[in-house]
Hints:
Low-confidence stretches: 1-57
Distance between the termini: 33 Å
Radius of gyration: 30 Å
Amino acid sequence: MPLNTLRERLLASSMICGVAVLGLSATQARAAAAVAAAEGEVAEIVVTGTRIPSPNLTSIAPVTTVGASDIRAQGVTRVEDITNALPQVFAGQGSMISNGSTGTASVNLRGLGSSRTLVLIDSRRLMPGDPTFTAADLNFIPAALVERVDVLTGGASATYGADAVAGVVNFIMLKNFEGVRVDAQYSGYQHTNHADGIQSVVRTAAAGATDPRQFALPAHSLFGGEGSEVSLTLGVNAPDGKGNITAYATYRQNNPILESQRDFSTCSLNSGATFAENGCGGSGTAYPARVGGFIVDPATFNTFRARTGADVFNFAPQNYFVRPDERYSLGAFAHYEIAPWATAYMDTMFMDDNSTAQIAAGGVFAGTQTINCANPLLSAQQRGLLQSTNGISCAADPTGVFRGTVARRLQPGEGTGRQAQNRHTDYRIVIGLKGDLGKNWNYDGYLQYGSVALNTKATGNFNANRLAQALNVVGTAANPVCAPGAEAGCVPLNLFTARTISPAALKFLNADSFLNGNTTERVASLAFTGKLGDYGVKSPLASEGVGVAFGAEYRREHLDFTADFLAAAGLITGAGAAAPPVQGGFDVYELFGEARIPLIGDMPFAKDVAIELGYRFSSYSSIGKTNTYKVAGEWEVIDGLRLRAGYNRAIRAPDVIELFSPQNVALDGTQDPCAGLTAANPLVATCASIFHLTAAQVLAIEKNPANQYFGQLGGNPALKPETSDTYTAGVVWQPSFAPGLDVSLDYFNIKIDQFIAGIGANLILNQCVTTQSPFFCGLVHRSPGNNSLFIDPTGFVQDTTLNTGSLKTTGVDLNVNYRTDLSRLGLGDNGSVAVSLVGTWLDHLDTQALPGGPTYNCKGLYGTTCGVPAPEWRHKLRVTWNTPYAYGDWVKSLSLSAQWRYAGKVRLDAFSSDPQLNNPGLQYETDRTFSARSYVDLTANFTVHNNLNFRVGVNNVFDKDPPIVGSSNCLAILCNGGTFPQVYDALGRYVFVGISADF
C-alpha cells in the first residue's frame, strides 16, 4: 500500500466526527488500529514501507497513544487511572478526592484545567459530566471496551469545536467484535505502615488529647480498598457480512479506604519547622464545646476554661482516602450497510454510578450564635464568665444575650462522618448515516443526544434554624425548654454541662439535604470529505491531489440544578455554603472546513511535503460569533526522517455554570495572612493600615486551624470566550540502522488569553498584604466585629468569575518505541522485547492573573497559588518481554512487563523569589520540597488453552509513601490525606489479578 494512501487514512482521525481522512472511511482507519492494538503495548497502524507503526509518527499534530495491552498491563478498572499515568496529565477530579468531590473523574491536560480538555468517544464529543462540574466524566467510559486512547496536544477547535484548548483525549472503543468475551478482575491495596516519625507525632498528640481515640494508629500491615470489575462483551456479524453489533455490560465495585488506615494521614499535620515540633492540628470545631474564648473544661463538664490553640479536633481519620463506588454500564455499537452508498450506525451507552464521599463528623460548626444569658443549662461559673452584648457579664445581665463563636463536634455515638451520596445516571445515543458518494466523495451525518442526571443526598449535618432555636433555652436546669417561638418538637441543646447530646436533641437538629440536577447535550452534524486530484486540483510536484472536508454542526447544551429549601438557603451547617439553583443553556451553529494539500512528493530531500488548513465559524447564543483556524505542515526529508509543525487558534466558550451561577459565599481560600499573628510580627502594622483596624483588633483575628476561609463565588453572563494560540514543532525519526526504533520529539507552546476564572482568594490576599494594592485589598471584606474571614459568611474574599489574564505552558514531549526480536541482539531465540517511553519536559507553566499584570511561572512548584505539583520532568517507561515459552497447548504467550513511572522534584511556591508567589506566611520547612518519586510496576500475562488470558500485577512494588504536606499548604479538594493522591501513589502497593475468556 502506498505510504501516502495510508497517511490519508490516518489524518481522518483528526477530522470532525471521526470522518476518514481524505478519501477513506473512519471505520477503516479504526479497524486498522484495532488489529494493531491487540499486537503491542501501544496501539499501532502498520504502514507498509515504514518501520514506525504509531499514529504519532504519521500525523502532523503530535499524538500520544495508549493501547489496550498497556491498559491491561496497568490493571486499572477506572479510566482516570489510564490518563493520570500520562506525563501530559495533571490532577483533576477523581476517586481519591472526598472533601469537594463531585463523584466524577476528569482529565486535565497540561495543567490548564479540565474544562479546557475536550474528551471524545470515537471522535465525537462526550457530554458534560455533572450539573455542578461540567468537565466530561471519565467514569462513563468502560475501561474494558477501550481499544486505545489518543492524546492530541494543543488547540483543535477548528476540527472539533470549542473546549479543545489544552488538547483532546479521544477514546477509541472496541467495535466489529465477533464472539463472546468475559473479563473479570479483582484488586486491592496492600500497605505496610512504616512512617515512624509521623507515628511518633500521633502518639504524642494522643497522650495530650481530651479523647485519645481520635489519634489511634492503624495496624502495621493492611490490605483494603478491594475492587472488582466484571464485563461481558458480545459481538455478531450480519449474515451477509455487511454489518456488526458489539454489545457490552459491565459491573464495577470499589471499597473505601479511610485516612485512619494510613499512618501518614492519621492526623492533619501542622506545617512548621518539623512535624515532630509542630504536631497534629485539626479543626477549631472540637470537643468539648467552645463558647467565645472558652471551652467546656473536660475535667468538670460544668465550667469553662480558656481556649488554647491545642483545643482542636483531628478530622482526618474519618475522611475517605478512596471513595466507595458502584457502577453499572451497558451499551452497544452497531452498523449495517443498507446500500452501497449508505451505512447506518448507532451507538448507545448507559451508566448508573453511585459514589459516596465522607468527611469528618459534623456538629455545631464554629460560627456566630446567640445564647440567652438566662439559659438554665449554663452553670453559675459559666454565666459569670460570658459577656453579654451590653458589655457586662451574663450573671449581671440576666435579660441580655451572649453573641459570639460557638462550636461543638459530634462524638462517636452521636454521629458518624458527613456523607454526600452522589448518583449519576448517564445516557448517550448516536444515530448516523455515512457512505461513499462515488469514487472521490463520502459523507457522515449523525444526531447525538447525551444526558446526565445527578441525585445527591447529604447526611450528618444540622438545620441552622433549629440550632438557633435549641440554643435559646428557658425554664429550669431540671426542666429546660426551648423559648417561645420555636418549632414544635424543639429540644434544648446542652453544650455546657453535659458530656453528650441527647438523642432527642440530635433528632431535632439532624437534617438531610437533597440536590438534583441534569445536563443535556444535543448535536447534529453533517460532513463531507473528498479527493480533488481527479478534478485536476493538484500540485505539479505532488503525486496526490488535494483532499478536503467540510460540513455544518449544531449543538445545544442545557443545565438545570436545584436543591431543597434548606440547602438552597444555606441553612445546612457543615455544608460549606448554600446551594443556589442554576439554570441556563446555549446554542451554537457552526460551519467548518479542512484541506490537506500535498505540495511535493518523491523528490530528493522531499519525499513528502504537505500542508493542512482548517477553519470553523461558530455563532453562539451566549457569546456571539467566533472564528477558529489552523495551519500545519509536514516535510519528510528522507525515508525515516519527518519534520512537522503547526499553529492552531482555538476558543473555549464559557459553560452554563460560569455564565449563570448566582453569587454565593462558600469555602474558597486556605489562608488569611492577618490571622493568628503575634505582637512582634511586622504584618500587624501592615494589616492594621490596610483594613483600618487597631493593632489590638488585628491581634484578635482568629486563625482557622483547618485553613478554610470564605470567598464570594459566582457566574458572570457578560463573559467573553477564552482564546488560545498553540504552536507545535517536532521531528519523527525512524533510523534505518535500528529496525523497530522510532523517536518523536515535539515542542508545544500553548497560550490562553482572557481565561475564565476567579483571581483566587489566596493570590488576592497575598497581593493585598504584599503590595497594598487598592484593587486587591478592595476585594477583601472582613466580618464586622471579629474581622474574620471564616467565622461568619459576612467575611469573605470577592473571587467571582471573570475574564482574567492569561495562561501559558511550553515544553517538549518525547515518545520512544522500540521493538525487536532478541535474536537480532544476539540473545538467541528467546522471544521479543518492546520498549516504550513517554516523557514530558515542562519549560513554563505561566499565569498572568490580570491583563497587563506580572506573570508567575509554576514549573517545578506546587502550593496555594500554583496548585497541584507541576514537576519539570515526568515520564513512564515500559519494557515488555514476550517470551517464546509454553507448556504444551495449555500455557503459552507468556509476557512479562515492567514499568518505571517518575515525577521530578517540586518546591513550595511560597519560597519562590518571584514576588507574585513569595509568601513568608506560608514558608514552612515541612512543606518546602517534595523529592522526586519513582514507582516500579510489574505485570505478567499468559494464555491457557487458547481462550483464557490471565494477568497478574503489582503497581508501586516497593510500597513507597507519598510526599506529605502540612495543613497550611494542603490545597482544598485536590489535597487529601496530607498529599496529592491524584498525582502520587498514596495507598501503597496496588495488586491485581484478572482473567479474560473468549468464546
